[in-house]
């Protein structure tokens, strides 16, 4: 974990939050590229949403949250809707790449 800057003002806090948001967006864009590849690789639209995999991902992020000093509930609350949005994106990609299967 990187060292956290001690903030004197709300301007300092907001600057750091905005910086982190930019980093998170870059990481989410990278994640989306892998999800798009999953749509290309999978051979059945019925395996786009795999409940066991969703629970595995949530379990992993809750463990990671704990390791980094973040409440696991915050990670779970952020990840579940994000995973749902990525599943929707993957299904859209699947339909775009393999329209004949629909």
TrEMBL record:
Q: What is this protein called?
A: chorismate mutase
- Which residues are recorded as binding substrate? 14, 31, 42, 90
The UniProt entry, under PROSITE patterns, shows: CHORISMATE_MUT_2
Q: Tell me which SMART domains the record gives.
A: CM_2
The superkingdom of the source organism is Bacteria
* Keyword Ribosomal protein listed: no
Q: Which GO terms describe its molecular function?
A: carbon-oxygen lyase activity; chorismate mutase activity
Q: What class of enzyme is it?
A: isomerase
Q: Among its keywords, does the record have Chloroplast?
A: no
Name the Pfam families for this protein.
CM_2
Q: Which GO terms describe its biological process?
A: chorismate metabolic process; salicylic acid biosynthetic process
What is the organism of origin for this protein? Aestuariispira insulae
Provide the Chorismate mutase domain boundaries. 4-94
Q: Which InterPro entries match?
A: Chorismate_II_sf, Chorismate_mutase-related, CM_dom_sf, CM_II_prokaryot, Isochorismate_pyruvate-lyase
Q: Which UniProt keywords apply?
A: Isomerase, Lyase, Pyruvate
Q: Which residues form a coiled coil?
A: none
- Enzyme Commission code: 5.4.99.5
């Amino acid at each position: 974990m990187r060292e956290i800057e001690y903030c004197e003002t709300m301007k300092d806090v907001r600057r750091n939050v905005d910086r982190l948001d930019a980093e998170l967006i870059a990481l989410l864009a990278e994640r989306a590229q892998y999800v798009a590849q999953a749509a290309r690789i999978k051979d059945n639209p019925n395996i786009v949403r795999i409940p066991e995999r969703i629970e595995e991902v949530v379990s992993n992020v809750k463990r990671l949250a704990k390791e980094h000093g973040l409440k696991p509930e915050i990670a779970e609350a952020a990840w579940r809707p994000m995973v749902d949005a990525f599943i929707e994106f993957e299904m859209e990609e699947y339909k775009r790449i393999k329209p004949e299967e629909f």
